[in-house]
Design goal:
The protein has 262 residues and is of the alpha+beta class. The chain has five helices and 14 strands.
Length: 262
């Protein structure tokens, strides 16, 4: 059967003013796409996450989150039209130092969700992740933490075989050496490896402030196991939306939707 998968960083940052209306509209637009599996990153605050979970459940989805005392650990949110057999959250061993711009990432406890779905009697594994961010004045220490988290993820994915999808905001542009690591250490591949994709654009209206960047990047990926057949993809939420009397983007990332045969 064909399966539509979405990954999207929702930009639930305290530095984003009036984000409640924006994120509510983002959720409405994603639901309209009728995807089968949805991996959100950066949904941080528990009250909002609980409300969003209810919206998805009322629209026929199963959801999985990992609430802490006050925040949603890792900022990760998962929704599926198929039953969730099991779900777990794994925190990366390597976290940001206390005295760095990555402190907020440390508070969130960056990691990944691993969810097992049952699809027409068969099991499928989906991993949703958000690696530590690199901020404006990138230090070697920040980048080192990011690469260590990526290595941890690859080690964890070694044991995954067929029917596996990995999605998320990796906060890194994949190079040839990274693709070689994927080939050598996992059963995964990136169907969009040769596409000139931009998921973080310097023209994004949410990038006109503290989050401003100098060039376009691709930081968001959907990787699939080699037994799954890739059908096609679509960048989502690239358009401007009229909210609060302004034309804005709904996140500081564009979303990625991919269709595969499982």
């Amino acid at each position: 059967m064909n399966l539509k998968v979405i990954t999207l960083n929702c930009f639930d940052s305290p530095l984003s003013s009036k984000r409640t209306v924006r994120i509510n509209h983002l959720i409405s637009e994603v639901i309209k796409l009728k995807a089968d599996v949805i991996c959100f990153q950066e949904l941080i605050f528990l009250k909002r996450v609980k409300r969003i979970a209810k919206v998805f459940e009322n629209n026929g989805y199963y959801t999985f989150t990992t609430p802490g005392k006050r925040i949603n650990r890792g900022g990760l949110f998962f929704a599926s039209r198929f039953p969730i057999v099991s779900g777990e959250y794994k925190k990366y061993k390597n976290q940001a130092t206390l005295f760095s711009l990555q402190l907020s990432d440390r508070v969130l406890k960056k990691g990944y969700q691993k969810v097992t779905l049952e699809i027409e009697g068969k099991k499928m594994t989906v991993v949703n992740t958000h690696l530590v961010s690199l901020y404006k004045n990138v230090s070697p220490k920040e980048r080192k933490i990011l690469l260590k988290q990526f290595s941890e993820l690859l080690e964890a994915l070694k044991v995954e075989g067929e029917s596996t999808i990995v999605a998320g905001d990796f906060n890194i542009e994949f190079t040839e050496s990274i693709y070689r690591e994927l080939d050598e250490k996992t059963n995964l591949y990136d169907p969009l490896r040769d596409e000139n994709l931009v998921t973080v654009s310097k023209e994004n209206s949410q990038r006109k402030n503290f989050y401003k960047i100098k060039r376009d990047k691709r930081l968001d990926y959907i990787l699939i196991s080699k037994d799954l057949k890739y059908i096609g993809y679509e960048l989502i939420l690239e358009d401007l939306y009229r909210l609060n009397k302004k034309n804005i983007h709904l996140s500081d990332h564009f979303g990625l939707m991919m269709e595969v045969v499982c």
